[in-house]
Automatic annotation (TrEMBL):
Domain HTH deoR-type: 4-59
Keyword Transcription in annotation: yes
Name of this protein: DeoR family transcriptional regulator
SMART domains in the record: DeoRC (SM01134), HTH_DEOR (SM00420)
InterPro entries named among the record's database cross-references: Carb_Metab_HTH_regulators, DeoR-like_C, DeoR_HTH, NagB/RpiA_transferase-like, WH-like_DNA-bd_sf, WH_DNA-bd_sf
Keywords, comma-separated and alphabetical: Repressor, Transcription, Transcription regulation
Organism in which the protein naturally occurs: Marinobacterium mangrovicola
GO molecular function: DNA-binding transcription factor activity
Length: 261
């Protein structure tokens, strides 16, 4: 089920507000009736994107990620703009990791016109998408398929990725904490993202603003380990964390910070 423009804006507003909003704040912000907001919140809650509480909503507290199909519809336009910004940075002939998740899938979509790359991935949707570009050589890891996430996982998968040293490691995250911690939902996901961080010349994090303050239980690394962070909106606390760090930030809403140092 796709989200309406207002529902996407509600999710963005919720993240910017620190994860808690009252129904009154929502009706005032969007200038609609209580009944209209209630319908939106019920639909978002049914998809697991928000948690209903008395008088409003909060970000869901989760130990498991949403299904791939549910994640595909969240901030889709933002993910597409992030993907295009990344695709524009990849030179012909580069070697690339593309990790799990829906934003790396959008990066693959943005690469369909690229003149030539070598891509290593465990993301089934990435591999299927890149099959449509004969100029891209795609290497896919073996392992155990996760049907709900549409990817391949396990020790063999991580070992396969660690055999490479690529030019660009492009990966997503489950959540970004207020302290700049890169969070994932399982040890397998964390180990795979860690392999991308360890085996890439340039580490590229792709994450839309819905990931900020999103709860996930496993700590994979820190934001200042990333060379390039591409997002649609940079919250003030994250910008402060990156001050005097080497991380370059591209914000597709129109503000590009360059290196934070």
């Amino acid at each position: 089920m796709s989200l309406s423009e207002r529902q996407n804006r509600i999710l963005a507003f919720l993240n910017q507000a620190g994860g808690n909003l009252t129904s009154t704040e929502l009706t005032d912000a969007f200038d609609v009736s209580v009944q209209t907001i209630r319908k939106d919140l019920n639909e978002l809650s049914n998809q697991g994107l928000v948690q209903r509480v008395h008088g409003g909503i909060t970000l869901p507290r989760q130990n498991r990620n949403l299904s791939f199909s549910n994640r595909q519809v969240i901030n889709l336009d933002a993910k597409r703009s992030i993907a295009q910004a990344v695709a524009d940075r990849l030179p012909e002939g580069a070697s690339v990791f593309l990790g799990i998740g829906t934003t790396p899938q959008q990066v693959a979509q943005a690469l369909l016109g690229h003149p030539g790359l070598q891509v290593v991935t465990n993301n089934l949707n990435v591999a299927l998408t890149l099959c449509r570009n004969p100029n891209i050589e795609t290497l896919i890891a073996g392992g155990r398929i996760r049907p709900s996430d549409q990817d391949v996982m396990g020790e063999d998968t991580t070992r396969f990725l660690r055999r490479f040293q690529v030019n660009f490691g492009i990966f997503g995250i489950g959540g970004l904490s207020e302290n700049g911690e890169l969070m994932d939902f399982s040890l397998e996901e964390s180990h795979l993202s860690r392999a991308i961080l360890d085996c890439s010349d340039q580490r590229v994090l792709v994450a839309d603003s819905s990931k900020y303050l999103r709860s996930a239980p496993i700590r994979t690394g820190l934001l200042d380990e990333v060379d390039l962070f591409v997002t649609d909106h940079l919250p003030d606390p994250v910008e402060a964390l990156l001050r005097d760090k080497h991380t370059e930030v591209i914000c597709t809403s129109g503000h590009e910070t360059g290196e934070s140092a």
